[in-house]
Structure formats: C-alpha cells, structure tokens
Amino acid sequence: MRVGVLTGGGDCPGLNAVIRAVVRKGVQEYGWTITGFRDGWRGVVDGDTVPLDVPAVRGILPRGGTVLGSSRTDPFAVPDGVRRLKENLAKQRTDALVVIGGRGTLGIAARLHTEHGVPCVGVPKTIDNDLPATDWTFGFDTAVGIATEAIDRLHTTADSHRRVLVVEVMGRHTGWIALHAGLAGGANVILVPEQRFDLDQVCAWVASRFEATYAPILVVAEGARPSDGAPVPGSVGEWLAGEIQRRTGQEARTTVLGHVQRGGSPSAFDRWLATRFGLHAVDAVRDRAYGTTVALRGTDVVRVPLAAATDRLKTVDPALYAEAGVFFG
User: 282, 30 in Cβ contact below 8 A?
Assistant: First the structure.
C-alpha cells in the first residue's frame, strides 16, 4: 500500500511521535510506502510531498511541533481544492490518508470521506483536550505541565511582592488546561469559558486571600468572560488584572503564556499516547476502517466514526469545576 500522512491545524507536542509510529510500523511490518504531505491539507491540494522512511523519522520522537509542517488550509474553501486534492492523491497512487489533527482537520477528513470517498483514518490531537470521541488528546498533558510549572514559579514572586498574579492560559472555548493546571498549581481562582464569572466574587476571593497573608494566583482561560456580559477588550488576563487592581487597590500583574504551551518537547505521557495512536492508525488502515479515528477510552485505543470526533466540543463538566471551588479564595 501507499499511505499518506499529514498534520493539520495548530501544532502541538507529540505530532512527530505519531508520524514516527506510522512509518515504523507501516514500513517494517507491512512493507508500505509512506508519503508525508507538507503543511496539512495544503500539501494534498498542491501535491507537495516528502518521502518518509525509517531513517527519515529517526530522532524525531522527542521533538515538538511537526517535521511535516502544518496549516489551517481547508480544501473546500480553496478554488477547485477538492478536485486538485483527488487528482494529486491519484497521481501519488495514495491508497489511504492518516490525518492527524483537531476538530477542523478531522472535520475535513470526515467530509472528504463521506462526500467524496477519500479513504481517511484520523488521529486526534489538540492541547485543548476538547474532542468528545477520546478521553485524552496528546499535547494536552504537555501544555498542562508547562502551565503548572509557570504557576509554581509565579507563587514565589507573588508572595515576595504581595501582588495579585493573573496567569492567562490557552482555551478559547473550553477550560481544560486552566482547570487542570490551576488545580495542580494551587491557584486560588480558576476561570473557564464554560462558567461565566462574577467579578465582585473574584475580587472578594482576592481580598480573602490577602487577609490570610498570601498573595493570590488566578488562572484564567483566554475565553473566560464575566457574567454581566461586559465586553473584554484584548487579553482577558490583562483586563482582569486591571479590574482587580482598580476595585481592590492591590497591585496586579498578568502573565500570558500563549504559544509557550504548545512548544517544546512532549511529555512522556504524550509520547506514549501519540505513539499508540500512530500504531493503531496503521492497523485501521490495514483493516480498511476508513472514516474512523483512533481514540483513547480508559487505557484502550479504540476506533470511532470521524463524525463523532468533530460533532461537538467536549466541555468542562460543572461537577469537575465545582471540585476546584474548594480552593478558591
């Protein structure tokens, strides 16, 4: 068989581990020819490829990002994109695609398979952990670890100057990183997009923390918003720090972690999960289980329909968020 591999959407740690596993198993166990498409769906639309063999993937396991490059190209939004994509797959004699991505990339794969018969197998990735088909996505554990380490470091400087420190983490639509890193890092307030926050309550928690002679750390997901519906100009972390300082009189500073959370070497868990996903994706291709994605359920890697991986967001359960509330203030 001739199998294509692509990585689409935002980069995250662990992508190279999937590529390595697909190549190692596909070449060594089944004798397949593996081709990488550069920059996600753009590479398939433009016919931009790179051969992948065992020497090509040697040493990439601990590397962050993706050796294939990534983009948010949507072939359905490109003039003649789908036609060009199918022509290039035929020209390359590609029998199947292993598509590594999040909701956008896997949603495109689902549509291509359903509407145009393109044989795709998905591998779910995102630091946001917001895909409903899988318990965990690789990249998430690394992002949480980076955010937790930052929170740990900020505690000491917050206490030294008796300042309020607001840590803004990624999470435009879901608060998984904020919740996990905030709880692991001992944050005094955690704000997520799923739960609108009362600014007066947040300021009360800050004041309570200072009464206990500790400087508070607030972790806020970039998509969190106040309950009164007031517009938030720019960074929610910067806005929140300004409001807290104005209302409480306590000096407040903001640290926006941004793309730091997506960079660097993947954690051991993400390397393990990404590797297993790659191995099982190869088996799905072998079994002609097209239109599915691999997913983690408990400790088992299973196959689920691509549509089930992209039909909604997996949001933070209110009960999980309530557990963290014990430590607020």
Answer: yes
Nearest Cα to 110, choosing from 131, 140, 87?
131
Rounded distance between C-alpha atoms, residue 282 and residue 121, angstroms? 9
Sort 131 into a burial class: Cβ within 10 Å, 0-12 / 13-18 / 19+.
Answer: buried
Contact in structure between 163 and 215 (CB atoms under 8 Å): yes
Mean pLDDT by 10 residues, the chain (329 residues): 97 97 98 98 97 97 96 96 97 97 96 97 97 96 97 91 95 97 96 96 92 87 92 93 95 95 96 98 98 97 94 95 93
Which residues have C-beta within 8 Å of that of residue 129, sequence separation ≥ 6?
136, 137, 140, 174, 176, 177, 314
Place of tokens 């063999």: 53
Residues 207 and 200: their CA atoms lie apart, in Å, by 11
Amino acid letter, residue 64: G
CB 80 within 8 A of CB 46: no
Q: What is the pTM of this model?
A: 0.94
Contact between residue 88 and residue 251 where contact means Cβ atoms under 8 Å apart: no
pLDDT at 158: 87
Residues 26, 30: Cα–Cα separation, whole Å: 5
The H or E element that residue 7 is part of is: strand 2-7
Q: Give the integer Cα–Cα distance in Å for 143 and 149.
A: 10
Residues involved in catalysis? 128
